[in-house]
Design a protein that fits this description.
Number of helices: 5
Radius of gyration: 20 Å
Helix content: 10-25%
Largest sheet: 8 strands, mixed
Distance between the termini: 36 Å
């Protein structure tokens, strides 16, 4: 595929500060931004390496990745918010009304919530995933008419206020790091959920993805539960 530099500003509309700052945190001198590769616009191009920042669902980028890894090394950067502060502003004046700490805390295994959309693709040697574990601030406008989700606010922006950790995942074996140290081998989803202190549904996402990657294999049953063994 031929690389073409896009006009300045292309693909930057409606881009949250979270996305933009990660792009610049990861970039190096000589990198190019918003570059056309075939029919796609790439966030960052570093020589022959294509770098995409995805802050939302992987389903919207899955087909793009499947095409790009056929001809290029691709790095997918995904932020997970480990701590978020919510700032409310007045919809008319923009004046700050208050700030609170969100009770929800992200964790690295939240990645599997997105990986279930493309677990087999992770096996491709041209694809690596880089997690940014970040603290963020989200600015909201109160008093907006509620939409189908029942929200009474609109999100104006999300921005990084700190980076706790960066995790590089280059091949299927790297994803085994998310299994708890005390986990038996073989193990069931119930055992994984207990050791990792997560819901069984979340454990199922993890084992589904690891199985599709080839990092674990199904080896039978214990009662009515599937047994998995690390390969």
């Amino acid at each position: 595929m031929e690389l073409e530099v896009e006009e300045k500003g292309i693909n930057l509309l409606n881009e949250y500060s979270l996305h933009s700052l990660i792009k610049h945190l990861y970039s190096l001198p000589g990198d190019r931004f918003e570059v056309r590769v075939g029919t796609y616009i790439i966030d960052v191009v570093r020589g022959d390496i294509l770098i995409e920042i995805q802050t939302r669902s992987f389903s919207s980028i899955r087909d793009k990745l499947r095409t790009l890894v056929k001809t290029h090394e691709v790095r997918l950067i995904h932020p997970i918010i480990v701590q978020k502060w919510v700032v409310y502003v007045d919809k008319d004046t923009g004046k700050k009304l208050g700030k609170r700490k969100s009770p929800r805390k992200g964790k690295p295994i939240d990645l599997f919530r997105e990986l279930i959309r493309m677990p087999g693709l992770v096996k491709h040697p041209n694809l690596s995933i880089i997690l940014y574990m970040v603290q963020a601030e989200e600015t909201r406008i109160r008093g907006v008419k509620k939409g189908w989700r029942g929200r009474g606010y609109k999100i104006l922006d999300r921005r990084i206020i700190g980076v706790d950790e960066v995790i590089s995942l280059n091949h299927p074996g790297d994803y085994l790091r998310f299994l708890p140290d005390g986990l038996d081998n073989p193990f069931t989803n119930k055992m994984l959920a207990h050791e990792a202190d997560i819901r069984i549904r979340e454990a199922g996402w993890i084992t589904y993805c690891l199985k599709k990657m080839g990092a674990i294999q199904e080896v039978g049953k214990r009662g009515r539960e599937l047994l998995f063994r690390i390969t």
